[in-house]
Amino acid sequence: MKKKQPKYLVIYEDVKEKILSGHYPINSRIADGNTLVQEYDASLMTVKKALDILVSEGFLIRRRGYGTIVKDWTKGKKAHLYAVEGSSKRHSGQLESEVLTFEVEHPNADIAHKLSIDVEDFIYRIERVRYVKKVPTIIEYTYMPISIIPQLKYSHLTGSIYKYILEELGLVIQSSFLNVKGVRPNALEKQTMHLTDTDFLMQVEQVANLDDGRIFEYSIARHLPDSFNFETVIFNN
């Protein structure tokens, strides 16, 4: 039986269609949160999640004290984070992967929330060490819903998961929400990357979306600081 589409995606798709069709003209204010809650029979958190995707895609902008406004999306200028392309492209020809964990399991409540799925759903839990020029440089903890990324194999993990997603599944990656900070290594990282308690790593926490708004990945990647390079390109709308 086909699984029912999450409510936030229903709201996202409907509001986006209203923007593209001109029901919500450029520079107009869309209905407020309480009105949308009643219209879609959803919680305020669910409505906010749907609108957050449209904000990230460059269709909406929030203005304090005024509401949520339709941006001039026809210019096609959206913020884009190139980190979404994955480690393989950034370290082309230099990267090797060691798979530590590849399991199919139910997510805990926190991971389920990050992926916008239920705890009864199945996910891939992947742990990999990424070697750059034979040096253990990155350790990745990745969670992906099986319903969105089906038939993932061990061979994909030793190469590029994103290549499988883009080229074999034919999916389109739209955006990525990133949080970057410095952290101390845990026991696994100290052992695998030959670190001590006084060392630190640069952590990139990522939630990545497809072009239809679905979240296909939640991941934490921890990098050696001397090889960490984070770039963004931001266009002014």
Automatic annotation (TrEMBL):
PROSITE patterns according to UniProt: HTH_GNTR
GO BP annotations listed: negative regulation of DNA-templated transcription
Domain HTH gntR-type: 5-73
Domain of life: Bacteria
Keyword Lipid biosynthesis: no
Any one GO MF annotation of this record: DNA-binding transcription factor activity
Pfam family of the protein (one): GntR
Keyword list, A-Z: DNA-binding, Repressor, Transcription, Transcription regulation
UniProt keyword Repressor, yes or no: yes
PANTHER family: HTH-TYPE TRANSCRIPTIONAL REGULATOR GMUR (PTHR44846:SF5), MANNOSYL-D-GLYCERATE TRANSPORT/METABOLISM SYSTEM REPRESSOR MNGR-RELATED (PTHR44846)
UniProt-recorded name of the protein: GntR family transcriptional regulator
Species the sequence originates in: Lactococcus garvieae
